[in-house]
Amino acid sequence: REDIENYCKKNSLTPNNDSSNNNVKYKRNLIRKEILPQLCKINSDTINAINSLSEIAQNNQIIIEEYLKTLKNPYNTKNFMEYSKAVKLELLYDLFIKNNIDYDRYKITNALEFINENQNSKSGKKLSLKNDLWLFVNNKKIELVTVAPLSDLSVEIKDCGDYTFEKFIFSIKNTNKIPQTYPKDSDGIAYVDLSKYKSLTLRHRKNGDLIQPLGCKGTQKLKKYLNEKKIPQHEKDSLIFLASENEILWAPTIGISEKIKVVTSPTHVLKLINMEK
């Protein structure tokens, strides 16, 4: 500033000076006009010391960011809990900044306390960060989630073939071959017997849905079934089901109904493929 003012005097220039620049009720002016001059009286090298401290802080931040990049799957709950408190706080700062979430020290420490309290939850808990965004924590992962409105999209399955459902491809094919090894529920593939069913629909869950879980004698509410499977609340409305009226026959990656299990040989093989993976 001093150099600019001297330049203006030397060249007979009259700069525009905003009157608010002299009002010390604004913190920036209070620091510039009163606090810094007092500090310079105590230590003439104050300005250089502050600039040096700023440069050190910037360098330290670069080191921290480089270190965070080396962490593998840091938002896995087990991994996260093994870090020091300082690293946990930095990871949360990083998560907030990258997702444009307003933050202060209270919000960050509150988020860390929430994680500590719910690190062993199987179904998971949510902490509201803003209107449409939550911090979700269970015993497996820590993530930011949004809750989309329940979609009423449904697709009738009339014949074998491929059907598009949102970002997924549902495939149904005839087969009577018994696989050497039946796929796991998590594979999103199922060998089933659909000989008793002609009307099938691919859709999201609805009130009144029932399922007879594999190995069970009776039916139960789909809501109870999903709770028993420890499906997080925010994921339930986005799940896709193969249904016959209000009866759920297949919950991809979760399980099949006892009513379509293979006794002698399958009639169909089902697949649900995520096109974004």
Task: Give a short overview.
The protein is α+β, with helices and mostly antiparallel strands and 277 residues long.
Global shape: elongated
Write down how many β-strands occur, each being a DSSP E stretch of 2 or more residues.
14
Which sheet architecture does the biggest sheet show?
Answer: 5 strands, antiparallel
Oligomer: single chain
- Global structural class: alpha+beta
Spatial gap, N to C terminus: 56 Å
Please state how the strands of the largest beta sheet are arranged side by side: 4-8-11-12-13
Mean pLDDT across every amino acid position: 93
How many DSSP H or I helices?
A: 8
Notes on the protein architecture:
This protein is α+β, with helices and mostly antiparallel strands. It is 34% helix and 22% strand. It is built from eight helices and 14 strands. The strands form four sheets. The chain has a five-stranded antiparallel sheet with strand order 4-8-11-12-13, with no helix packed on it. It is elongated. The mean pLDDT is 93.
Write the layout of secondary structure elements.
Elements: H1 2-10, H2 27-42, H3 46-70, H4 77-81, H5 85-98, H6 105-118, E1 125-130, E2 133-137, E3 142-145, E4 154-157, E5 161-165, E6 168-174, E7 189-192, E8 200-203, E9 210-211, E10 220-221, H7 222-228, H8 233-236, E11 241-244, E12 247-251, E13 255-256, E14 268-274
Helix pairs in contact: 5-6
